[in-house]
Amino acid sequence: MNRFEQNEIRENLSEAGCTESEVTQIIECIACNDLKGANEKITACRKKHLDSLHESQKCIDRLDYLSFHLNR
């Protein structure tokens, strides 16, 4: 992996919301050709964000429920 690719991957992971520690671990896995390890770490980051999304959706659903009942 050349420097350009590493910077591109780092930027993409950062913009995706991965922490600096997660980004560094993923980059290190890729540099060592441990693509399985990199994918596992990416999957863990994705799960963390998906769990957060589901929690946000629950909050929105509760607010919608209250709003619906107040406006009846």
- The helix fraction, in percent, is over 70%
SS element count, helices: 3
Multimeric state of these chains? single chain
- The overall strand count is 0
Relative strand content:
under 5%
Q: Encode the helix/strand succession as letters.
A: HHH
What is the domain tally? 1
- Can you tell me the residue ranges where pLDDT is under 50 for at least 5 consecutive residues? none
The radius of gyration is: 18 Å
**Main pleated sheet:** none
- What gross morphology would you assign? elongated
What distance lies between the first and last C-alpha atoms, to the nearest angstrom?
60 Å
What's the overall average pLDDT, rounded? 95
SS-derived structural category: mainly alpha
Structure, described:
This protein is mainly alpha-helical and 72 residues long. It has one domain (3-70). The protein has three helices and no strands. Helix 1 (3-15) runs antiparallel to helix 2 (20-31) and helix 2 runs antiparallel to helix 3. The longest helix is centred in the C-terminal third of the chain and has 36 residues, at 35-70. The radius of gyration is 18 Å and the shape is elongated. The model has no long low-confidence stretch (mean pLDDT 95).
